Write the structure tokens for this entry.
Amino acid sequence: MALRLAELHPETDWRYVCTPTGDELPDVLLHWAKLECLLGKPLEKVTHKLDLNQLIAEMNALPSWRMRWCTRMLKIETAIAWYAKNAPCVAYVGLRADEPERQGGIFGDSVEQRYPMREWGWGLADVQRYLAERGVMIPKRTDCARCPYQRLGDWWELWKEYPDYYASAEAQEAEVGHTFRSDGRDTWPADLKGLRLRFERGEVPRGVELNGDLFGKVEACRACSL
Ligand code: SF4
């Protein structure tokens, strides 16, 4: 949405805003850097004063499907505060035409909200086609590394590809005495230590390979590397 708006209205002094949690995987940071190259402007990182891991330590609590304080504190409340400070303004929200059930943020009367992709009638296929034309690859995961909503296969890939992230999440479970995953979600252990022991024995959750080729690795920005 941001790329297309910049193309359609180059005369506008756009501000590009995102709300990092500090637990993004390296591919996401690379993706943002590439977007900054293409947009010719930095993304404004709107953050809480503590990142996700600092909040876990301070509150001695993990985010879970029962307590999704992470989204509220790190994304919704920070965005509301940013818009309140910058109002009146227009918030352009990247929701597509084929996901009418999703709603944008609630930023108050002084912030008009627009949904350009819905105005253009863009569904998922249109977005994918547009990004492919511009050489933009969406990272396989854009959620937090230790997001409690990730699938079992994502935990396996985190353990395999980012063992340091996995180890720090496992240490947080030991520290706090709870688990990111919920009991009964599948037949695997809920805790990351138990999962790791199974992974280390060579057990691979079903579906991991199936996920693999739906997305691609993010490529470095060619413009920046020149
Ligand atoms: S991606 Fe997951 S952990 Fe991160 S803020 Fe959203 S729900 Fe919380």
Notes: The chain has eleven helices and four strands. The first strand starts at residue 17 and ends at 18.
